[in-house]
Automatic annotation (TrEMBL), chain A:
Record key words, sorted: Chemotaxis, Cytokine, Disulfide bond, Inflammatory response, Secreted, Signal
Main localization, broad class: secreted
Organism of provenance: Malurus cyaneus samueli
GO cellular component annotations of the record: extracellular space
Keyword Cell wall biogenesis/degradation in record: no
Annotated family: Belongs to the intercrine beta (chemokine CC) family.
Ranges for domain Chemokine interleukin-8-like: 31-91
PROSITE patterns, per database record: SMALL_CYTOKINES_CC
GO molecular function, one term: chemokine activity
Upper classification of the organism: Eukaryota, Metazoa, Chordata, Craniata, Vertebrata
Annotated protein name in UniProt: C-C motif chemokine
From TrEMBL, chain B:
Domain G-protein coupled receptors family 1 profile positions: 51-307
Gene3D superfamilies assigned to the protein according to its UniProt record, in alphabetical order: Rhodopsin 7-helix transmembrane proteins (1.20.1070.10)
Annotated localization: Cell membrane; Early endosome
Protein name, as recorded: C-C motif chemokine receptor 6
Gene Ontology molecular-function annotations: C-C chemokine binding; C-C chemokine receptor activity
Pfam families tied to this protein: 7tm_1
Organism domain of life: Eukaryota
Membrane topology of the entry: Multi-pass membrane protein
Keywords: Cell membrane, Disulfide bond, Endosome, G-protein coupled receptor, Glycoprotein, Membrane, Receptor, Transducer, Transmembrane, Transmembrane helix
Main subcellular localisation: membrane
One example of a Gene Ontology biological process annotation: thymocyte migration
Length: 100, 363
């Protein structure tokens, strides 16, 4: 029966080593505002005032761009879509012009 | 610039407005966490500190003949103390809805939290193994237990080192950062900067947490305690029924505290990264997570009661400790404090006479 405790020790420490770099308990926050899905329609460029980026590496699960419209709405859009990329270029260009 | 066509295009635009998907507002959840978590965490911290400090003191002052389970319980009490000491910081975090302690304390808090969580769970597994050896393998157990006891420091060191290794990602990947959506707000959480598979990593972490924090101790407990109950049923012992009751209680409390939280974590892990989750169900999951998490944390307040205070010997030590503490204060008041040392010595002697070779903490 020496086996039982030493075997289990080996088992546990092996498993511990396996997940050495990855594991860890997390006290993650689930109380922040996040985009959960994307807007299904295109937004006209003139309605946009600015944008924010939602990073999936932080508390939110999915990557997203949040377009702020001039009427005060926030639209979650998919950063991978072509029209979003074009709008982003336009917005950052306009921002640069304004700060210059 | 494109700011003038308001009036003409307004109907066209409002059509878009109805189709826009906005970020899911968790204001309700934040109001809930602002009120509920600081209270719950403070209570768990106070109760946990009291119970576990008494276990540590009783163990350090009175216990001479230590069994392996005693050593595990002592370590578990220390892990629980460190764990509950991080809770006030989380209480402040949720009350202020912001992390105000900076990056270093964020890393430390999350690290200590993770280390003690995994340490506590590993020790629960080891305690069940030790009891299994003591009761089921009773004939061979004397030799084995003497041997493991000789290595007790080494085993505990291994438990602590593996917990630190298991939790190393918490040190590496956590930090305090300003939230990308609301840059005025500092958060203390995992952050996988520059990693393309961060969603997958997050769900992997949840799976591993459930695996380590729940399934490993659960499997050990079920295996060991099933055999213990079986062999106790065969024994003709007057204390048998009480022992079985204690085991059932230990397993039941573990399940009640840990199962709801781990189910919620599993559901979150399965749905991690899925697009088109509804805001309502996401809010419900957030409520469920915070509530079940508090119940799971409660486990470390119950541990001293379950494992230590139920033992007759521990209780007698505890009563002695209380008496001694009271006497100490009384004597200090009447300026005879030099006597306390001999007093403790005296009570140690009497307690030694009272003990046999068994564990003072266990059934």
């Amino acid at each position: 029966m020496t086996g039982c405790s030493s075997k289990s020790m080996v088992l546990v420490s092996l498993l511990g080593l396996l997940v050495l770099l990855l594991c860890g308990t997390s006290e993650a926050q689930s109380n922040q505002d996040c985009c959960l899905s994307y807007t299904k329609v295109r937004l006209p460029r003139w309605a946009l005032k600015g944008y924010t980026e939602q990073l999936s590496s932080e508390v939110c699960d999915i990557p997203a761009i949040i377009f702020h419209t001039s009427s005060g709405l926030n639209a979650c859009v998919n950063p991978k879509e072509g029209w979003v990329k074009k709008h982003l270029l336009f917005l950052s260009h306009r921002l640069r012009k304004m700060s210059a | 610039l494109q700011t003038d066509p308001h009036s003409t295009d307004y109907p066209y635009y409002s059509d878009y407005a109805s189709q826009i998907t906005q970020p899911c507002s968790k204001l309700e959840v934040r109001n809930f966490t602002k009120a509920f978590l600081p209270v719950a965490y403070s209570l768990i911290c106070i109760i946990g500190l009291f119970g576990n400090i008494f276990v540590v003191m009783t163990f350090a002052l009175y216990e001479r003949t230590k069994s392996m389970t005693d050593v595990y319980l002592f370590n578990m009490a220390i892990a629980d103390i460190l764990f509950v000491l991080t809770l006030p910081l989380w209480a402040v975090n949720y009350a202020a809805d912001e992390w105000i302690f900076g990056d270093f304390i964020c890393k430390m808090t999350r690290g200590i939290y993770a280390i003690n969580f995994s340490c506590g769970m590993l020790l629960l597994a080891f305690i069940s193994v030790d009891r299994y050896i003591a009761i089921v393998q009773a004939t061979k157990s004397f030799k084995i237990r003497a041997r493991t006891l000789a290595h007790s420091k080494l085993i505990c060191l291994a438990v602590w080192v593996s917990s630190i290794l298991i939790s190393s990602s918490s040190f590496m990947y956590s930090g305090s950062y300003s939230f990308s959506i609301n840059e005025t707000k500092e958060l203390c959480d995992h952050r996988f900067d520059g990693m393309s598979e961060s969603t997958m990593l997050k769900s992997l972490l949840l799976w591993l947490q459930v695996g380590f924090g729940f399934f490993i101790p659960f499997i050990f407990m079920i295996f060991c305690y099933t055999f213990i109950v079986k062999s106790l049923q065969q024994a003709q012992n007057s204390k048998r029924n009480k022992a079985i009751r204690v085991i059932v209680l230990i397993v039941a409390v573990f399940l009640v505290c840990q199962v709801p939280y781990n189910i919620v974590l599993l559901i979150i892990a399965v749905n991690m990264g899925k697009i088109d989750k509804s805001c309502e169900s996401d809010k419900i999951m957030a409520y469920a997570r915070y509530t079940t998490e508090a119940i799971a944390f409660l486990h470390c307040c119950v541990n001293p009661v379950l494992y230590a205070f139920i033992g007759v010997k521990f209780r007698s030590y505890f009563v002695k400790l209380m008496k001694d503490l009271w006497c100490k204060r009384y004597k200090k008041d009447s300026k005879h404090s030099s006597r306390t040392n001999s007093d403790i010595y005296h009570s140690r002697q009497t307690s030694e006479i009272l003990t046999d070779n068994g564990s003072s903490f266990t059934i």
